């Protein structure tokens, strides 16, 4: 899929309208006032000539929350900040991405996590090759998932497990070294739905 085709899909309001906001299975715990935190993530598609890929990070094992999990660069929005500004700022802080590089092409449906984050995924195209300098306090590794995997309808698996005393279902994406699940996996599912139309 070419960068132009990716940008066209992200601009298709009819396709986006068919994909609703997504929720974690334990999102009802954040229905209390004051519990929801606005956040944004950058969903970076690296425009490799041979095959585009999606840039992901493995969070540092030393972090107090979501340690060692796969995520997109992102975090809390600051007061008065747009999701786009927050996503680009966080990517610069976490992986050393030059803020001038992302070509912002759209948003995916919002995602409400069970940990109380209302996440706006911002999709951007990035030129290849990338030179990144991850902050070791936040990111253990930056790696890429081929876009062909994201576009494969058979790739994501629906799994279930016990969490906080109840059964929950979640998406998992295949990767040879990392376990991609939770909000990151759900956002990738929405990206796949948009790109496949």
Automatic annotation (TrEMBL):
CDD domains: NUDIX_CoAse_Nudt7 (cd03426). Residues 32-167 form the Nudix hydrolase domain. Its cofactor is Mg(2+); Mn(2+). Keywords: Hydrolase, Magnesium, Manganese, Metal-binding. InterPro entries: CoAse (IPR045121), Nudix_hydrolase (IPR020476), NUDIX_hydrolase-like_dom_sf (IPR015797), NUDIX_hydrolase_CS (IPR020084), NUDIX_hydrolase_dom (IPR000086). PANTHER family: MITOCHONDRIAL COENZYME A DIPHOSPHATASE NUDT8, NUDIX HYDROLASE. NCBIfam families: PRK10707.1. Belongs to the Nudix hydrolase family. This is Nudix hydrolase domain-containing protein. The lineage of its organism: Bacteria, Pseudomonadati, Pseudomonadota, Alphaproteobacteria, Acetobacterales.
């Amino acid at each position: 899929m070419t960068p132009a085709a990716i940008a066209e899909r992200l601009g298709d309001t009819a396709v986006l309208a068919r994909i609703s906001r997504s929720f974690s299975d334990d999102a009802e715990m954040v229905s209390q006032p004051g519990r929801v935190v606005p956040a944004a993530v950058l969903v970076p598609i690296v425009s490799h000539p041979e095959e585009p890929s999606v840039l992901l990070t493995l969070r540092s094992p030393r972090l107090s929350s979501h340690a060692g999990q796969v995520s997109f660069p992102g975090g809390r929005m600051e007061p008065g900040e747009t999701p786009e500004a927050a996503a680009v700022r966080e990517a610069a802080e976490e992986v050393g991405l030059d803020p001038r590089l992302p070509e912002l092409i759209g948003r995916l449906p919002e995602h409400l996590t069970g940990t109380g984050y209302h996440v706006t995924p911002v999709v951007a195209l990035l030129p290849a090759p990338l030179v990144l300098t991850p902050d070791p306090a936040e990111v253990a590794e930056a790696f890429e998932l081929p876009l062909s995997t994201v576009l494969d309808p058979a790739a994501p698996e629906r799994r279930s497990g016990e969490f906080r005393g109840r059964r929950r279902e979640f998406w998992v994406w295949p990767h040879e070294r990392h376990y991609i699940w939770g909000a990151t996996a759900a956002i990738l599912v929405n990206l796949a739905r948009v790109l496949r139309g």
